[in-house]
């Protein structure tokens, strides 16, 4: 579930109604999977078309930067939704928009880790290096809890807006340094 901070109470801060129908919050557990099923083929078609274009495919670094930019935007949207919400309930579409942006960012970024490792690792340590990516995901997942707890000490919108800004800046830096990184790995 995409969570909007430690004090976010879905029943009181989000409007779960579409007409007379109350959307079960459990449906949002399936939002990522639904996005992957629907948007996966679309993203594959975009990558294929891009790869066959005269400019060629985006580099791994630019794809990673794009994933970071989508993730950063999702955090900024989350913070913006909290500000716009004020004392009212947040519209359900805000949560859906955040979920779609996060899923897209994940679909752009996630497959690149093992691909990068298998492409650039020396053959003698390839097996060991293939374990680095899942370990990095483990460390990220473990550190998320600490970051989440830390952010709970601050107002939601500024804290998550700052996280979004940091991720956006990192994505822009990575995009900008693409050529330099490509020369380092080739």
TrEMBL record:
GO terms for MF: transmembrane transporter activity
TM regions (residue ranges): 26-47, 68-86, 92-113, 125-147, 159-177
GO cellular component: plasma membrane
Topology versus the membrane: Multi-pass membrane protein
InterPro entries the record matches: MFS_trans_sf, MFS_Transporters, POT_fam
SUPFAM superfamilies membership: MFS general substrate transporter (SSF103473)
Keyword annotations: Cell membrane, Membrane, Transmembrane, Transmembrane helix, Transport
Cellular compartments annotated: Cell membrane
Location (main, coarse): membrane
Name listed for the protein in its UniProt record: Dipeptide and tripeptide permease B
Gene: dtpB_6
